[in-house]
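yo, N-acetylmuramoyl-L-alanine amidase is done. seq:
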Amino acid sequence: MKRQKIPIHLRRKNVVILVLCVLFITFITIEIYKHSPLFVGLTTGTSVKANSIYKIVIDAGHGGKDPGANGASGKEEKEYTLALSKKIYELLKQERMFEPYLTRADDTYVALADRAKFANELGADAFISIHGNTFSDSEVSGTETYYYANSSRQLAYVLHEHLIKAQGFRDRNVRKQDWKVLVYSEVPAVLAEIGYLTNNKEEAAMLDSDGQVRTAQAIVNGLKQYFTQGHVK
Ligand SMILES: [Zn+2]
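structure:
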C-alpha cells in the first residue's frame, strides 16, 4: 500500500496543535496541584523535606538567676533541665537526620522571649522546652506535655506517648496551655513537664543518670517518628 504524503503545511499545523495541547495540559495540572502540600514542598522546599536535616532546638528550662522549682531533695530544677537537655542534644547529634541546638549550654539566664526567638530565627523544625514539675502535695506525680498552637499538637502527642512508655510515670495527658515560650514560638513547639520533682520517688528517677538517658532516647525516638511517619493518632 502506498503511503500518502502529508503536505508540509498540514504537518506544521499538527505540530502546532500538539504543542498547544501539551501547554494546555501543563497549565491545567499546575492549576489543580499548585496548592497541594507536595507541590508547595517541591517548589519551595518548605513543606516536604525529603532526605532533609531537621533543626531541633532543645530548651533547658530556667537557668542562672532563675532556679525553677525546688525538688523534694532541695535540688534545683535548672540543674535537672540542663542535664537532661545535654543528653538529648548528644543523642540527636548521633542521628544524621537531626541538627540539634541548645538555648543554653550552662547555668546562664535566658529570657523566655529570647528562647523562642532563637528557634524562630533559626527556622527550627521543632522547639522542645524541658521542665520538671512542682506541686504543694508531694503525692502528685506524672508526665504532662504541653502545646499552644494547634500546629504543635501532633508533635506533643507523639513525644508524650514516647515519654510515658519509656519512663512509666503516671500519664497526666497532653494539655493546651499558653506558656509564654510556646506562645512566642513560630515553629512547632512543645513544653514537656517530664515528672514531678516534688515527688520523692519521681525526683529520684528523674535525677538518675540512666533514667535521663532513657528519657532523652524517648524524645529522640519521638522526633524520629514525628518527622518520618507523622501521625500516631
Ligand atoms: Zn520549669
